[in-house]
Structures are given as C-alpha cells and as structure tokens.
Automatic annotation (TrEMBL):
Catalytic EC class: transferase
GO MF assignments: phosphoribosylglycinamide formyltransferase activity
Entry-linked Gene3D superfamilies: Formyl transferase, N-terminal domain
Site-annotated residues for Raises pKa of active site His: 144
The protein, known as: Phosphoribosylglycinamide formyltransferase
Length: 197
C-alpha cells in the first residue's frame, strides 16, 4: 500500500477526489497526512476523512530555505512513499526537491510543456489556443519542467472563460492523478526509470 502525503494551498478538489478513491479497498494507496503552506479550506476534507494535517505558513519563516526545511521535516515524520502536490502554489527550494524527487508529483492545468507556471488556463485562453490539457509530472527544480507521467488534451470551446475551462480541466486532472498514483503503486509507472531515462 502506497503511503501518500498530499500538499495543498486552497480548496482541495483534487484532494477530495483522491480521498474518495482511496476509500476503496481495491485502491492501492492511502493518504496518511495533508499539509499546506497556509490555513487552507481543503483541510475540511481532511477532517471529513479523519486524516491528520499540518500547516507550515511561509510568512512564519525568514526565508524560503528555512521554510522548506520545516516542510521537509513535517513530511518526513509521516514516512510517505510519495508526496503529491495538489493545488500547492508555492515553489520549493532546491533542498526539498532534491530530498524528495522523483517521489514527488504534481498536477498542472495544461498540456505541458505548453503553458507552464501559475496561470496555465489563463495563458491558454490568452494565446487563443484551440486546445489545452492536463498533465501529471514529477517535480523537479524547474517550473513545471519535470518528466511527464500522464497527460490528456482538452478542447477550448467557443465562449470559454477561465472558470469554465478550468472546471473542465479539473475533471481530467483528478482522473489523471488518481490513475497515475494507482500506476505508481502497482509498478506500472517506475518513477526512478522515468527520471533516469
């Protein structure tokens, strides 16, 4: 059984879908703790499912490195097999990525390498793209530049706003995330192989 620590910054809709999937005895992963860089609304899901939480506010530390050290210490207490960034909006300092990669994955609301960064959906609309997508990647020290584990195209529809497009992207993101974690847990995806190929 794969042990997961999930990190969030907001409402945690992907987290909720993952927690629901993990309720099944047939799903080969379990969330052991949920962390955030602020008091996140998504902690409500943790409470509903009886999952422990931790918060490491960025503003409580003098710099990114000391904040990162504390996040890493909190994660390591749970001895996870995989760390999942699910709407976690803050970049980690190098020492955190080096300590956890390749066993740290992230979802992104675009078909990478298209539209990396914090505003993938907005950027796709601004570019007049006819399609965008969702991706699941290994976290590296770049911005959404790690090895791609899964991705899927999503059409941009006439009249789409950032909200309507993002809502459709999220549906695919959740499915890809749940499927990717399943494949990591069962050995269908070898993270070490993905990062050394």
């Amino acid at each position: 059984m794969l042990k997961l620590v999930v990190l969030i910054s907001g409402g945690g809709s992907n987290l909720r879908a993952l927690l629901e999937a993990a309720q099944s005895d047939e799903y080969p992963a379990r969330v052991v703790a949920i962390g955030a860089d602020r008091e996140a609304d998504g902690f409500e899901h943790a409470e509903a499912f009886g999952i422990p939480t931790f918060s490491v506010p960025f503003t409580s530390f003098p710099d990114r490195e000391s904040w990162g050290d504390e996040v890493l210490a909190q994660i390591r207490q749970w001895q996870p097999d995989l760390v999942v960034l699910s709407g976690f909006m803050r970049l980690f300092p190098r020492q955190v990525v080096d300590a956890l990669s390749p066993h740290m994955i992230n979802t992104h609301p675009a078909y990478l390498p298209e539209f990396p960064g914090a505003h993938g959906v907005r950027d796709a609309l601004a570019a007049g793209a006819s399609q965008t997508g969702a991706s699941v990647i290994v976290v590296d020290n770049g911005v959404d530049s790690g090895p791609i584990l899964a991705q899927e195209r999503i059409p941009v529809l006439p009249g789409d706003t950032e909200d309507t497009l993002h809502d459709r992207v999220k549906v695919v993101e959740r499915r890809l995330l749940i499927g990717t974690i399943h494949d990591i847990a069962t050995g269908a995806i070898d993270l070490t192989e993905k990062t050394t190929a």
